[in-house]
Amino acid sequence: MSDFLLIHGSCHGAWCWRDVIPALEALGHRARAIDLPGHGDTPCPIEDITLDSYADAILAAIDAPAIVVGHSMAGFPISAAAEKDPARIARLVYLCAYAPRDGVSLVDMRLEAPRQPLLAAIEKTPDGLGFTFREGKLFEALYHDCPEGTEAYARERLCVQAIRPQATPIRLGTNYASVPKSYIRCAEDHAIPPEYQQTMTEGWPPEDVSEMPTSHSPFFAAPKDLARRLDRIARGPA
């Protein structure tokens, strides 16, 4: 049995893992999800939300070495957490996520991708400190292959995403490098281009990279398949 800690992406919360948690538990694992500061049931003034506060929240949720799964933008905070305290993290799993490089911000990485499909789907808040998803753009950007009702379920729960953590260059060193890593790419992703997910994983051992035929939201589109893949990662090579 492994302990999984599941970390959501931009504008989401622990709620997006609702179908994956029972699927992992059915496979014999312990699975939990948290709300990062400013998301879900963890309110925080947007001006106080930082990449460090995200990383600290992840580490505070770990009571024994865990496999930490980060979706989308959560690739940055899970990596920052590993750099702060690698002993608490058994493995990092990037789920169609940004796999960061030292000294680069998530905004930098988004701009270096060959396409910017997400830009048409988001808009800044009037204060310039956050962004939200535009009406009418959510389905195509995130949930185009998900079960009926997914978009409505998400729309009621999505929140403002603080920009500051995504504009902060990450600092990664030997602590981060020491933690094992896996990546699950999504072939029909309309948020992070699949070809850029390939670029981010160039040079990774083939056994540490797999691909799902889904959108940017495999936790809704194929939760049981995702759980099986995470189970295989936890069990290691046969």
Automatic annotation (TrEMBL):
InterPro entries associated with the record? AB_hydrolase_1, AB_hydrolase_fold, MES/HNL
List GO BP terms, alphabetically: jasmonic acid metabolic process; salicylic acid metabolic process
Q: Which Pfam families match?
A: Abhydrolase_6
Q: Which UniProt keywords apply?
A: Hydrolase
Asked whether the keyword Plastid is assigned, the reply is no
Q: Where is the AB hydrolase-1 domain?
A: 4-228
Q: Which Gene Ontology molecular-function terms are recorded?
A: methyl indole-3-acetate esterase activity; methyl jasmonate esterase activity; methyl salicylate esterase activity
* Superkingdom field: Bacteria
Q: Per its UniProt record, what Gene3D superfamilies does this chain match?
A: alpha/beta hydrolase (3.40.50.1820)
Query: In its keyword annotation, does this UniProt entry include Mitochondrion?
Result: no
Q: What PANTHER family does the record point to?
A: METHYLESTERASE 1, METHYLESTERASE FAMILY MEMBER
Please state what the protein is called.
Answer: Pimeloyl-ACP methyl ester carboxylesterase
